[in-house]
Amino acid sequence: DVKVTQSSRYLVKRTGEKVFLECVQDMDHENMFWYRQDPGLGLRLIYFSYDVKMKEKGDIPEGYSVSREKKERFSLILESASTNQTSMYLCASSSTGGSGKTEAFFGQGTRLTVV
Amino acid sequence: AQSVTQLGSHVSVSEGALVLLRCNYSSSVPPYLFWYVQYPNQGLQLLLKYTSAATLVKGINGFEAEFKKSETSFHLTKPSAHMSDAAEYFCAVRGYSSASKIIFGSGTRLSIRP
């Protein structure tokens, strides 16, 4: 089974702090994603990476950056945390789509509270 | 750009009744399409996926979805709702490119009345 592991289930940070959310997958997937989930808004894509050191902005990249130095690890960075970044953050990975393997596999999520 | 629209943020049905959750997609070419389910305090789980092999796709827990290109729809159905189906359901779309984003809808919360 694919396993996507997020380093923390719950985090509480102060406004202005630099925050790192870490995600590791064990299935050698090329693609990795960071989403935030808010009630009524569904999952919104923050950033997407399709290879080591390669990234694309999603729909809501403002206030975030990402790092992918190794294939299995994708980090989300909040440069200066603000209260409006309080949310559930979900990491996912997927293969390139060959042999019908198209879907994303998700971690359990990190609930971040910025106070 | 690809997108999905889920009609109805909240759907309530009686136990044993038909479940119908609506999803319409926007894509320049026929995409890959997915339905995911999220039970309370749990992660997202794949229910089913469309990858162009067949327009009627069967998934887990008795759910199925039909891809209709003419209507750009991928609605999720289940003939008879069970209390355990209460959850949030998300429709998602992905393009054919190997380096393709996966875009989700805003979700539909399904409630089951006894």
What does this structure look like?
The complex is a heterodimer of chains A (115) and B (114). Chain A is mainly β and 115 residues long. Chain A is 0% helix and 56% strand. Chain A is built from no helices and eleven strands. In chain A, the strands form two sheets. In chain A, strands 2, 4, 5, 6, 9, 10 and 11 form a seven-stranded mixed sheet that branches. The radius of gyration of chain A is 14 Å and the shape is globular. With 114 residues, chain B is an all-beta fold. Chain B has no helices and eleven strands. In chain B, the strands form two sheets. In chain B, strands 2, 4, 5, 9, 10 and 11 form a six-stranded mixed sheet that branches. Chain B has a five-stranded antiparallel sheet with strand order 1-3-8-7-6, with no helix packed on it. In chain B, strand 6 (56-58) and strand 7 (64-68) form a beta hairpin. The radius of gyration of chain B is 14 Å and the shape is globular. The termini of chain B are far apart. The relative contact order of chain B is 0.33. Chains A and B meet through strand 4, strand 5, strand 9 and strand 10 of A and strand 5, strand 9 and strand 10 of B.
Radius of gyration of chain B: 14 Å
What is the 3D form of chain A?
A: globular
In whole angstroms, the N-to-C terminal distance of chain A is 37 Å
User: With helices defined by DSSP (H or I, 4 residues minimum), what is the helix count of chain A?
Assistant: 0
Give the CA-CA distance, first to last residue of chain B: 41 Å
Portion in strands of chain A: over 45%
Order of helices and strands of chain B: EEEEEEEEEEE
Question: Which structural class fits the helix and strand makeup of chain A?
Answer: mainly beta
Poorly predicted tracts of residues of chain A: none
Residue share in helix of chain A: under 10%
Beta-strand level of the residues of chain B, as a percent range?
A: over 45%
Share in helix of chain B: under 10%
How many helix segments of chain B?
A: 0
Structural class of chain B: mainly beta
Task: Calculate the mean pLDDT score of chain A and round it.
Answer: 94
Round the mean pLDDT of chain B to the nearest integer and report it: 92
Low-confidence stretches of chain B: none
- Specify the biggest β-sheet of chain A: 7 strands, mixed
